[in-house]
What does this fold into?
Amino acid sequence: MEHRRWVLTATILGSSMAFIDGTVVNIALPALQARMGATIADVQWVVEAYTLFLAALMLTGGALGDRFGRKRIFVIGVAVFTAGSIACGLAPGITALIACRGLQGIGAALMVPGSLAIISASFPDDERGKAIGTWSAFTSITMVVGPLVGGALIEYVSWRAIFFINVPFAAIVLFLALRYVPESRAGGERGLDLAGAALATAGLGALVYGLIESPALGLAHARIAGTLGAGLVLLALFVVVEWRSRSPMMPLGLFRSPAFCGANLLTLFLYAALAGGLFFVPMNLIQLRGFSATQAGAAMIPSVLLLFLLSRWAGGLADRIGAKRLLIVGPLVASAGFALFAQASDASSYWTGFFPAFVVLGLGMSLTVAPLTSTVMGSVPREHSGIASGINNAVSEGAGLIAVAVLGLAMAHAFDAGLERHLQDVTPELRGEIQRQAPKLAAIGIPRAADASQREIARRAVADSFVAGFRLVMAIAAGLALLSAFCAWMTLESDAPPRRHEGQ
It folds into this structure.
C-alpha cells in the first residue's frame, strides 16, 4: 500500500510538469517579446514546438511503454523533459528556445501516456478508480496553482525560472519512479507505427509552418503554398498508412462508432477554440492593460478553479441524465464565455471585461470535460479504451496546435488592417516604423523621438488594432464552440445514461 502511494505521487508530479509547461508558458510570451524582441510568429513557435511533438508522438509514447516497459519509457520521458527544461532556461535566443521546447515536447510525449498506464497496472481493480480520481484532482490543482506561481517567477525572478523549477520536481519523480514504480508491459506484442508517427509529425509541422509564416510572406508565396500543400499530402498519406498498418497508432476502425467520432469532433472544435483564444489573453492583460505576470496568472484562475470544483459533479450528473445534454449545453456556455471576451475593450476593467468571461468559460468547460471523457471511453470496447483515450488526448493537442496557427493568422491580418486605418494621421516616418514592427502586435515599441501627440496617436492605433484582432479571434473561438455543440447534437445518441459498447 505504501508503495502504491509513492507510485501515485510520481505519476502526479510527472504529469503535472507536462501540463503546467503546456499552459504557463503563455504567460511568459510578453516577457519573451520584451526581452528578446520576439515577433508574434516567434512566440507562436515557442508554444507550437512543444505541442507539435506532444500531439504527434503521444500515441507512439504509449506504444513504446506497452512494448519496452512503462516505467522505463516514463523515466526516459522525465529525463528528456528535464534536459529540455534546462536547455530552455539556458537558451541564448529565441531560435534556441524554440528548438529546446521541441525537446520538452518529445519528453512529455513519452511521459504523459505512461502516467495513467502505470496507475492502471499498479493498482487493483477495486482501487484503480479512486487512484485515477486522485490523479485527476491533483493535476487539476496544479493547473490552478501553476499560472499563479509561474507568473510570480516571471515577475520576480525571470522567465527562465519557469523552466528551471522543473528540475527539483523531476529529481523527485525520478527517485520515486526508480525506487517504487514496478515495471509493466502490455500482455501482447504491440507493434510500433514509426511511419505513422513520422508522417503525423511532418504533416502537422508543415501545416503549422505554412500558417505561422504566411502573414510575413503571403499565402500565395511559393514556399508557403508548397509547405501547406506538402502538409496536406503528408497527412493524407498518414491516413492511408493507418488504414493499412497492422499496428496503427490511430486505429481508424474506432471511428466507425458515431459516438466516438462525434466526441472527437467535439474535442477538435472546442479545444481549438480554447487553445487559440486563450493564447492571446495574457498579451491583452499584460501589454494592453499593464497587468504584471503574477496578476495575469491569477486572472485565469476562476476558469480552472471552476473546472476543478465542478467536474466531479458534472460527471455524476452525466451518469444520471446522460452525456448528450451536457455536451450540448457545456460548449454553448463556453461559446458565451468567448463572446464575453470579445466584448472587452481596452478601457474595460478586469472585473467587467474579463472576470465574467473567465467564469462563464470555466462553467462551460466544467459541464463538458467529464461527460466527454465518459463518452469517449464508453463508445468503444473495453479493450480499446486506452487507445481511445490516447486518440482523444492527441486530438485535443492537435486541435490546439492548428488553432494557435490559424487564429494567429486571423489576428495578424486584423491587426495589420487596423494599423492601416488608424495611422493615417501620423508622419510617414513614424508610420513606417510602426508598420515594420507590426509582427510584434501589442509589443510594438513607439519611438521616443516622435512628437508626444504623434506618439499618443500611434499608441492608440496599436491598442485599437490589437483589440480588433482580439475580438475577431474570440468571435472565431465562439463559433468553434458552437460548432462543437452542433456536433454533439448531431452525432451522439439519446440522453440515456451512457452504456458500454456491446461486448465490454
Notes: Residues 496-504 have pLDDT under 50 and may be disordered. Residues 193 and 248 are 6 Å apart (CA to CA).
